[in-house]
Each structure stands twice: as structure tokens, then as C-alpha cells.
Write a structure and sequence with these properties.
The chain has five helices and 13 strands. The strands form four sheets. A four-stranded antiparallel beta sheet has the order 2-3-6-7, with helices on both faces. It is 31% helix and 22% strand. By secondary structure, it is an alpha+beta fold. The mean pLDDT is 94. The chain is globular and about 45 Å long. The chain has one domain: Creatine Amidinohydrolase.
């Protein structure tokens, strides 16, 4: 597929940055500091631009994870990561005009980021909500992978996946209601998983799926984003 190697490369930078942030995010670090550190890591790996309104890392801490806003309005806060807390990080590196787009939710227990296996052995109320949110995000991506086909429209997928979110007793937090977008060379050309978009998935070379969700009775938001593409009718994760 044309350009695939370029996208694999820039997305690998986003993934390795998320991996490195596991040792950076701790109790007491601020949202703004996480942004600066993430952007520095990406620059050190050769990223020369951030395609999303110049923002390389879209970070929210604690109950601010429920906030959904455009990058045009984003200003990282001085909110500090707590002892038991949650952090969402959405990265937008650009390398030689090619975009990466990758988001994950970090869980902090006793002051440090923990993996999901460790979380399962932690029985505080916060840990239970955290665990359920992470599992629900993974389930949404799993359903998405099983469901989507090249001849489906973005609107069809939007309607179906929003139904799944409701079945899981979660709410779509996105400020414009969408669940992802096409990968372009100009951010203003993006097409979204939203009502009214009759474009077929096969017409897009690459597209994201990035549900931003909150449990109906929950206090925190969760994000998980990957870039997907079809090759010979089969769906792949970038």
C-alpha cells in the first residue's frame, strides 16, 4: 500500500513515546509537564511537526479526563496527578507530512503507572472504575474490528458503535459526537465517523477509531485510539 511504511514509522514513534511515558507519569507531575515531556520525546525521535493545531500531546488528568474540547481551545492545566488517578494522552506527531495518531489511558495506583494485570489485583473503588473503563475501551475496539467492512459508510459504523457504547452503559464524550476520522495531509480535510457521512470506509486509506467514553455513573473519561486500514478487504491496525 502506498505510503504505508511512512505511516508505520511515525506511528511507531507515537507508540514508543506512550511506552516511555509510563515511567514519566507519577504522583505529583502536572498535566502541563506531561505535555512538554511527551513532545520532547517525539522531537528527540525526529518528529518535526504536530499536525493537530500544533499540539503534540493532548493530555488530561483526573476528572479533567471527561473534558472534550478542540485542540484550538486546549491549554494544559497545572493539575497534578494524584496518588490514585487517571491520565489520558493523545499524541499527534507529524513526520515529513505523514501523521501519527495514538491515544492511551494511564492508570496511577499508589503514585505510579500500573499495568492492567496489576490493576486486576487492586480492589479499591477507583481501581474498579479504572479497570472497567479500560476493559470497555478494549471491547469497543474488538467489536469495531469484527464489525467493520470496506463497503460500510462512516455513518453506519458511527450509529452501530454508539449503540454498543450505550449497551455497555457508557456515554460518548466527544464534543462533536464523532468516533474517529480519516488520516489526511491537511487536518481540515478529515472525514468523520458521524451522522451524515455517507463515504465508504474503502474510500479512505487510513482512519482512526477513538471512542472517548465515560461510564454513565462514572467520574472519569477513557480514551483508546488506533489507526486502521484495509488491505485486500482485511482490516489491520497500524
Amino acid at each position: 500500500m502506498e505510503h504505508l511504511s511512512h505511516y508505520l514509522y511515525v506511528q511507531s514513534i507515537a507508540k514508543s513515546t506512550i511506552s516511555e511515558l509510563k515511567d514519566v507519569i507519577k504522583e505529583g507531575i502536572s498535566e502541563r509537564e506531561i505535555v512538554y515531556k511527551a513532545e520532547d520525546i517525539m522531537r528527540d525521535r525526529g518528529v518535526n511537526n504536530f499536525w493537530y493545531h500544533g499540539i503534540g500531546a493532548f493530555v488530561h488528568v483526573g476528572k479533567r479526563t471527561k473534558i472534550s474540547e478542540s485542540g484550538k481551545d486546549y491549554n494544559p492545566s497545572e493539575t497534578l496527578v494524584g496518588k490514585n488517578d487517571i491520565v489520558t494522552v493523545d499524541l499527534s506527531p507529524e513526520f515529513n507530512t505523514y501523521w501519527g495518531d495514538y491515544a492511551r489511558t494511564f492508570l496511577v495506583i499508589d503514585g505510579n503507572v500500573i499495568d492492567e494485570e496489576t490493576l486486576q489485583n487492586t480492589n479499591t473503588q477507583s481501581a474498579l472504575e479504572f479497570s472497567h473503563g479500560i476493559k470497555s475501551e478494549k471491547q469497543l475496539h474488538s467489536v469495531f474490528i469484527d464489525y467493520v467492512k470496506p463497503d460500510m459508510t462512516f455513518e453506519e459504523v458511527y450509529l452501530y458503535m454508539n449503540g454498543v457504547i450505550k449497551q455497555l452503559d457508557y456515554i460518548n464524550l466527544d464534543f462533536s459526537g464523532n468516533l474517529g476520522h480519516t488520516i489526511e495531509f491537511n487536518k481540515d480535510n478529515r472525514k468523520y465517523f458521524e451522522l451524515g457521512n455517507k463515504m465508504q470506509l474503502s474510500e479512505a486509506s487510513f482512519f482512526t477509531f477513538e471512542p472517548h467514553i465515560k461510564h454513565t455513573n462514572g467520574e472519569y473519561g477513557f480514551k483508546r485510539e488506533d489507526i486502521y486500514y484495509f488491505r485486500n478487504g482485511e482490516l489491520f491496525v497500524l
